[in-house]
Amino acid sequence: MAAPAISSPFSTLSTARLSSFSSNNQHPKIINYAKPFVIRCVNSAKTIYSPTIRRSANYRPNFWDYSFVKSLKSDYTEKHAEKYEKMEEEVRCLITAPMEPLERLELIDEVQRLGLRYKFETEIKNAVQDVVNQTNDQDAMLHHDIHSTALRFRILRQHGYHVPQEIFDRFKDENSHFKADLCNDVEGMLSLYEASFFGLGDENTIDDAKVFATKHLKGLNEAKLDSRMARKVNHALDMPLHWRLNRVEARWFIDTYREEKNKNRLLLELATMDFNKVQSIHQKEVSKLARWDIHEIDKIPDNTIKTCLLALFNTTNEIGYWTLREKGFNIIPYLSKMWANLCKAYCKEARWFHSGYKPTLKEYIDNAVPLLGFFTAYFSTTENISKEALDYIYDLPSIMRCSAMLLRLTNDLGTSSDELARGDNVKSIQCYMNDTGASEEVARAYINGLVHRTWKTLNKDMFLDNPFEEPFISACPNLGRTAQCFYQYGDGHGVPQYWTKDHIISLLVEPVPLD
């Protein structure tokens, strides 16, 4: 399944595995938790959770009709297959054809934003390498203006090349500030803005670029802009490209690209057909998933228990499958430790709540990022499991910790007000307020800044060696992107009737019209 279908920290597990399980008419044993119960800490008689004060999210009833979900089907048929394959080969030739450096970078960018990168991984990789290997004269052509320089910087960093931030020094004045006349180039400002989200660690020039480009883009008079450029600027300011989910971006960019004067009609048609083809595959997967009686899960009253049951159900199947696959390699100790860590985190949170303790921001974050979801996702996406990788995951590497922090912090920014209103624990915003005495507005700004800094650390971590391979390695930034998508305007997970619903309909239900 595509990332937009993710609905919990555990849902990075393979939906294909779950659908296969369901198609065999096997169902998890649903335990009746409607009766009152009490949870006690191990080695302690102290009650940490009782039925008299049970908290519930009280989410609204599900608005999806499962009969409709099970009936999903696409207009894409095999009659399109021959034309699709022909266009695919033509685009492959287009990417590999000789062209000017800037033209090549813009083509790579268009192919990627249209959602076609996965189709042409080798050709794009070679094209990017050509940009890296070009002559000094060719390279100079990409440093002529801010647009080409920023686009080169972004594309190369996207593909793992460590381009130095100093390439932007030529656009600074004698005081090391970006030159004021750059703001007259709207396309250049937009390119600089998007590039600035690929900063690493303490790159001050990239930080300055983000502040400079953001300020001037926000200060533009929209009435004086071309309608297409105004749409691009508003889209970027709403959320930068680097933080967006690929499929969500592709659906938006197909419509936007259609309005471009210099669009490549072949590329647009292939992207449209490919989107509908992928959508048809996802529809089949969702239809299979819906055959598992999700209504039974809805009868369980407590949201946390639902999540744990689903996670336990999936993890149990992972254990059986991968233990057999690895021919005796024992993963049980790793999973046991991960589950123990998760339970300890939940118990600590419960103790804080019932004792009225207000954790510091550091205490809160240290307890709020258990990585069980990554551990189970590793088994779902990796063919060659290694002990080295399992040990690496268990040591909580920065690349995963940052991804989990993005989920936690963006969740807090979107949901903390509602959660506090129903009596939940304090979140990162309130922890910072307690630590510093700051107002909620200042605390929110700080947490938002922490999100930006965490993305920079994650960007840097993506350049470091690790024992992983695709597609698992991309799961780390993709979890952050999923969180940004769900919680951008509020609780898009718990209250999905608005933008989340629109995303899902555009991704899974409505095909892109063919010209």
From TrEMBL:
Domain Terpene synthase metal-binding: 289-457
Cofactor: Mg(2+); Mn(2+)
Domain Terpene synthase N-terminal: 64-237
A GO molecular-function annotation: terpene synthase activity
Gene Ontology process terms (BP): diterpenoid biosynthetic process
Transferase as UniProt keyword: no
Record key words, sorted: Lyase, Magnesium, Manganese, Metal-binding
Record has Ribonucleoprotein as a keyword: no
SUPFAM superfamilies, alphabetized: Terpenoid cyclases/Protein prenyltransferases, Terpenoid synthases
UniProt-recorded name of the protein: Terpene synthase, metal-binding domain
